[in-house]
Amino acid sequence: MSFTAAELEKVIENLRFDSLARGMEASALVSEWTEQEQQTLPSLVSLAPSGLWQELLEEHRRAMSSLLSGIDMVAAANNSLLKGGTPAPAGEGSEASDVDLSAIALAANIQRAVAAVASASLPAVREFLGP
Question: Is this structure's pTM higher than 0.85?
Fold first, then answer.
């Protein structure tokens, strides 16, 4: 559990970086095909020249949507498991010697992992994929 939160944060960071790179590539492509700067993937498909580009981009949208759905399912499952595994805090009357430091560390790691999972919603990717 001690590495889970850090690993989740790294994955989310990588997804955000990939989303930024995807946005830059999409903007470059849009500038070749139209005067507008920002486009969603469905509108980019509609701007694409007939043939291979439209098919490729539509397949890309379907695959990304499927991956995003998978991320949603895993995030929900992880959130449920993490929240179910949070140790109860020490009671008000507990002495310092009664406090289990490993339980406190575990609870902190679980809270950190829950926060990382909660940030996995990737709103920029959802917006780019369109309805």
Answer: no
- Whether 22 and 122 have beta carbons less than 8 Å apart is answered as no
In this predicted model, what pLDDT tens digit does every residue of 53-73 receive, in sequence order?
Answer: 888 888 988 998 898 888 888
Given a contact cutoff of 8 angstroms between Cβ atoms, the answer to whether 71 and 122 are in contact is: yes
Instruction: Judge contact between 38 and 28, C-beta under 8 A.
Output: no
Other CB atoms within 10 Å distance of the CB of residue 78 = 18
Say which residues have a Cβ less than 8 Å from residue 74's Cβ, sequence separation at least 6: none
Q: What is the pLDDT of residues 36-55, one digit of tens each?
A: 666 788 888 888 888 888 88
The radius of gyration of the chain's CA atoms, rounded to the nearest angstrom, is 21
Q: Where are the alpha helices (DSSP H) in the chain?
A: 4-33, 41-47, 52-84, 101-118, 123-129
